Amino acid sequence: MVEVTQPKHGRLDFEAIRERLYPLGIGIVTVGVWLLLGHKIVAFCVKEQWHIEQMYTAVFAFLAITTGFLATFYCTILCMSEGFVGQIKDTEKMRGFLGFVKGAILLGFIVSIASIPMMVAEPVPVKQFSVAAFVVAFWIGASAWAIAAFYRVASLFFFLFEARIKPRRPAG
Questions:
Q1: Other beta carbons less than 10 A from residue 60's beta carbon
Q2: For residue 34, which of 107, 160, 165, 123 has the smallest C-alpha distance?
Q3: Residue of higher predicted confidence among 85 and 76
Q4: Going by DSSP bridges, is the β-strand pair 2-3/164-165 parallel, antiparallel, or unpaired?
Q5: 21, 42, 64: which is closest to 137 by C-alpha?
Q6: C-alpha distances in Å from residue 17, one per residue of 9, 31, 123
Q7: Exposed, middle or buried: residue 155 (CB in 10 Å: 0-12, 13-18, 19+)?
Q8: HSE on the CB side for 123, CA within 13 Å?
């Protein structure tokens, strides 16, 4: 009845695994890059008189907005019972998509809350492998993970809304 434009993949297919794990991978890579190069980035920003501590506020604002958007979208999808969403609501693909949405909401919420003390303390680590460098590295990694999770959901919206529904034959 419903033809989805997304290619069919099994759970163990490379593309399916990549789709599930790439936001986490981006977060892990970001932690590593920050631990190796963060002190140099901070030194450059200080030299150029950039306000690097404003990244805490920017990430907080972005994730607060996107988390609210996703929560609204999630509730809307759950309440829809007609149209193509009603027809694909009980499919495995839709359950997987809603799992991505819930994960992005949770990650966005956690990082937004974690950003509040970062905005107050404004750690700007200048020494590599210091306590501040690790705190900021994990916060940046979690932020990158949350932003990538939002991107994954936003990019999958196209598959959801491009679903082609074959017309039903009238009863009788």
A1: 19
A2: 123
A3: 76
A4: antiparallel
A5: 42
A6: 10, 21, 35
A7: exposed
A8: 20
Among 101, 83, 90, 92, smallest CA distance to 156 is for 101
Tokens of 131: 């306590």
Encode pLDDT of 86-111 as tens digits: 778 888 888 999 999 999 999 999 99
Pairwise CA distance, residues 61 & 140, whole Å: 14
Provide the strand spans (E) within the chain. 2-3, 164-165
The residue ranking higher by pLDDT, 49 or 2, is 49
Confidence of residue 128 (pLDDT cuts 50, 70, 90): very high
Contacts made by residues 149-154, CB under 8 angstroms, sequence distance 24+: 149/23, 149/100, 149/103, 149/104, 149/107, 149/108, 150/63, 150/66, 150/70, 150/104, 150/108, 151/23, 152/19, 152/22, 152/23, 152/100, 152/104, 153/70, 153/97, 153/100, 153/101, 153/104
164 φ, ψ (degrees, to nearest 5): -105, 125
